[in-house]
Design goal:
By secondary structure, this protein is an alpha/beta fold. The protein contains 21 helices and 15 strands.
Length: 424
């Protein structure tokens, strides 16, 4: 520090009335990249007003306000001429002033250099393609960019790329998430969904599958499954009765026993991963949302002409995996759910996924009326009904919105059972 700057800093430090003034000017200087804006101290003390008067040569009273440029100009009229406001602030606070733009440019440079380093270590073209998309500010860029302030970003990115590399080097292999993580990174929890590396890994999977990244649990599990990763291989399940389920050797003997005994069978994602195909003996399959309704109907399963499947609310990955197998065989689906936002949103979701194969089953406005709706619905459960666009659901949605009451499947059990047991 030159003698003149040292003398200038000593002068201002010897007068405490300047301290808050200089603090505000430092913030403004960093924000705008120069002596722009103004100091504003509403509760200025007498000492601070006297400090301002000493520099500007006129009296001040609270609120204390003046422009930074005026301070810089006044400083040049003192014996410290040549000491700019920037030099004063840097020396007074022992810092280097970097504007927001300069900081942003440096972070972008650091980000680009990090991508280059990690890309040089990445073995697969899939991993390098994803890194290239990150460089174009897509597919996880914002998440990674926000982490650049600490030291977690690069290690997490490296772990995510190792996960992508492992998948690329083991095509078609089904693996549990923890096992993949351990093999790719030596840490079975590195790619957990709650960790930065795990979140980046999900962004990479979505990009490589050509899908829009989603934080919805069902979408996340589906993304894992499509990539050959079993996450909740036991927790995700679907219950059915009557389906023909096959592995590479033909109908699976355990599931055939359930079918021949007309007993319901719960399939985990682990079970479904071993299946190669499935179909309905009648070419049709009926779906219900409610577990109690499913159980009640299954008391008459020996009389069913077609299989029955329970989605247990919003379809999990296991449900969708089973329906995909059946859809491949051209199975016609009939879905019945409760008359509320969730019940109709499930129907809409399945219609979108199987537009030519799925029809609603006792979900018309007249069916809603037959449930004698009495339970009031809060607005949160009505909201999904306002966004439904499928013409097959809009009339029912309008009826529910009009009454603002829920209708339940349990009150349609006789009709559902009659359809399942009628002569085809």
């Amino acid at each position: 520090m030159s003698g003149q700057i040292s003398e200038c800093v000593a002068y201002f430090k010897s007068r405490p009335g300047y301290h808050r003034i200089l603090e505000q000017m430092l913030k403004k200087y960093k924000a705008y990249g120069g002596p722009v804006g103004q100091v504003s101290i509403v509760d200025a003390t007498e000492e601070e007003c006297e400090a301002a008067q000493a520099l500007f040569g006129r009296p001040y009273a609270p609120p204390l306000r003046f422009k930074l440029q005026a301070f810089d100009n006044a400083l040049q009229q003192t014996k410290f001429q040549g000491v700019t406001l920037k030099k004063l602030l840097e020396s007074y606070f022992h810092t280097t002033i970097r504007t927001k733009k300069e900081i942003q440019r440096q972070v972008e440079l650091d980000f680009s250099e990090m991508l280059t380093r990690v890309s040089s270590e990445t073995q697969s073209s899939a991993g390098r393609d994803w890194l290239s998309r990150l460089g174009d500010k897509n597919d996880g860029y914002q998440l990674l960019r926000k982490s650049m302030g600490d030291r977690t970003a690069e290690p997490a990115l490296r772990q995510a790329c190792r996960g992508v590399d492992w998948l690329a080097l083991h095509p078609g292999e089904v693996v549990r998430l923890a096992v993949l993580s351990a093999r790719a990174t030596s840490d079975p929890h590195a790619l957990d969904g709650g960790r930065l590396a795990g979140k980046l890994f999900l962004h990479a999977l979505a990009a490589l599958e050509g899908r829009v990244f989603s934080t919805v649990a069902e979408d996340r599990d589906s993304l894992y499954y499509e990539a050959g990763i079993l996450c909740d291989s036991i927790a995700s399940s679907v219950t059915q009765v009557g389906l023909v389920l096959c592995d590479e050797n033909g109908e699976h003997p355990a599931f055939r026993a359930f079918r021949e005994r007309h007993e319901s069978c719960t399939l985990t994602l682990m079970n479904l991963a071993a299946l190669s195909s499935g179909h309905s003996p009648s070419g049709q399959a009926y779906l219900v949302e409610n577990q109690m309704v499913f159980s009640q109907l299954c008391d008459q399963a020996k009389r069913f002409h077609s299989p029955l499947i329970c989605t247990s609310g919003q379809p999990q990955v296991a449900v969708l995996r089973l329906l995909d197998l059946l859809a491949t065989a051209g199975t016609q689906f009939y879905y019945s759910g409760d008359f509320d936002g969730e019940g109709l949103s499930i129907a809409a979701r399945l219609m979108t996924r199987y537009p030519k194969l799925l029809r609603t089953w006792h979900m018309a406005p007249e069916d809603y009326a037959r449930t004698c709706p009495e339970v009031n619905l809060p607005d949160s459960r009505l909201q999904p009904l306002r966004t439904l666009t499928d013409f097959r659901l809009t009339a029912t949605a309008a009826a529910i919105l009009h009454q603002k009451r829920a209708g339940y499947q349990e009150l349609l059990l006789p009709s559902l059972l009659a359809d399942l047991t009628a002569t085809p």
